[in-house]
Amino acid sequence: MKAITIDSLGEQSKFKLTEIDQPKPNDDEVLINIKAFSINPMDVAAKLGALNSPFPDNWSFPLVLGWDMSGIIVEVGSNITEYKVGDRVFGELRNDHAGNNGSYAEYCATDTSQLAKIPEKLSFAQAAALPIAGLTAYQAITESLDVQPEQHILIQGGAGGVGSIAVQVAKLRGAHVAATAGPAHIQMLQDLGVDQVINYHDVQPKDVLHDIDGVFDTVGDIEGGLATLRSDGKLITIAAQPTSEQLNGSQHVAFQFTHGTSKMLTELGGLIADGEVKQEVETLPFSAESVNNAQDRVGDRHVTGKLVITL
Known about the structure:
Layout: E1 2-5, E2 16-19, E3 30-39, H1 41-47, E4 68-76, E5 88-92, E6 107-110, E7 115-117, H2 124-128, H3 131-144, E8 152-156, H4 163-172, E9 176-181, H5 186-191, E10 196-199, H6 205-208, E11 212-217, H7 222-226, E12 229-237, H8 244-247, E13 252-255, H9 262-273, E14 281-285, H10 288-299, E15 306-310
Parallel strand pairs: 8-9, 8-11, 9-10, 11-12, 12-13, 14-15
Antiparallel strand pairs: 1-2, 3-4, 3-6, 3-15, 4-5, 5-7
Helix pairs in contact: 1-10, 3-4
Domain Enoyl reductase (ER): 10-309
GO molecular function: oxidoreductase activity
Protein name: Oxidoreductase
């Protein structure tokens, strides 16, 4: 099969188009003909060699990275009963997938723990943009922060792949939502229903927000988020490690380890299909050049929404 691979880890390593052996599903897995995959900050960290166990435990070179994907099931293991050949599916591969079994390829084999059927109204590109970013946002708002009606919530980094989903899910739960963004994304967030967009080029959140109920930090500014939070409020971060001082203060601070499920993927896909949550998706053709370009852009942290490679 065709795959986009790297031969080493590090900033200088470049992706290239390669022919490698197709992964073989075991009795508890399905084989998927991939139609689209998305590029996440986690992918960039993986390429740089910045991910710890269990991620690299089963890697080998040439290495196929990638976790988010959508496609069509072409083979099912003997123990699989909930899916059949021909099903359109999307999901996230195992953290410790084998070196030849990432999503930057024509095929992948995976178990079904983080797999769901694609709603009819969704394209492969839309579905591939959802798993990691969508599940991260969905878990943060519905579980980690457990956002309630009339609460005041700050999303730090509202225009990214995670933040743009989070602001909408928080609004659906009846919250008053503030979000930080650069000037190029102010209108976009206003169109998504954000109540207060803070241009971080001109003003700090702490200068305009006080006694916030909850903060979702996607940019790594824990201290800035805490400065807006009420004394017993909650901050959830996915972009920095809290210090012991922050963890032991009166405010609740935690790093979120996302644990997506098929049920959560189905719920999130339904929100997109019904038009209740909108996506910002940019598609690029399947090539090494596209992946190198997308990795660079995601690494610079100034992407609007999600970058998706289509096959």
